[in-house]
Design a protein that fits this description.
It is built from six helices and six strands. With 176 residues, the chain is of the alpha+beta class. The chain has one domain: 2-Layer Sandwich (Peptide Methionine Sulfoxide Reductase, Chain A). Strands 5-4-1-3-2-6 form a six-stranded mixed sheet, covered by helices on one side.
């Protein structure tokens, strides 16, 4: 029986979001691109679709990692391009995700602005820029913006990370 589920997540640059979720156990696939919802949120915004096995990675953990690895409490000027959202595919997911976010609010000093929205459409990124981090870990963008997120994962969510994918970060820290 196929237990795989999916959820779409948006918040920051999709290269960053893609790398974070590609680095987790229980995540079977990450699709990078742009997601649109309905009504006021029908424009496309950078996001990823995360496919996961809930026996290996709980939805609550995915949501918590998502909230910690982007500016989930900041309503900055780039929110149209980088919408802070969890896009749900099933009606049952909506209430579950809302409860998860509400339950995690007490871990954050400021109010979470992350919205739970229905998934409407997806446009994949060009193939040349997918798997961006793992194809280009030495690029300045990756070192400056993605490595700190992955180091955060190692520090705060290490039991959920695929250590083999993040070994290079452990070696970097111990070089000095």
């Amino acid at each position: 029986m196929d237990l795989e589920q999916k959820i779409a997540l948006g918040g920051g640059c999709h290269w960053c979001t893609e790398a974070v979720f590609q680095s987790l156990k229980g995540v079977t696939k990450v699709e990078q691109g742009f997601v649109a919802s309905t009504k006021n949120y029908s424009t496309f915004s950078e996001a990823v679709i995360v496919h996961f096995n809930p026996e290996d990675m709980a939805l609550k953990t995915l949501i918590e990692i998502h909230l910690y690895t982007h500016k989930s409490t900041s309503d900055h000027s780039m929110r149209t391009k980088y919408r802070s959202a969890v896009y749900v595919f099933l009606k049952e997911q909506k209430q579950n995700v809302e409860c998860i976010i509400e339950g995690l609010q007490n871990k954050f000093e400021n109010k979470l602005i992350t919205q739970v929205l229905p998934f409407k459409a997806f446009k994949a990124s060009r193939e040349q820029i997918t798997n961006y981090y793992y194809s280009n870990p030495e690029k300045p963008f990756c070192e400056r913006f993605i490595n700190p997120k992955l180091e955060f994962l190692l520090e705060h969510f290490s039991s959920y990370t695929d250590q083999s994918k993040l070994n290079h970060l452990n070696h970097e820290k111990h070089k000095t």
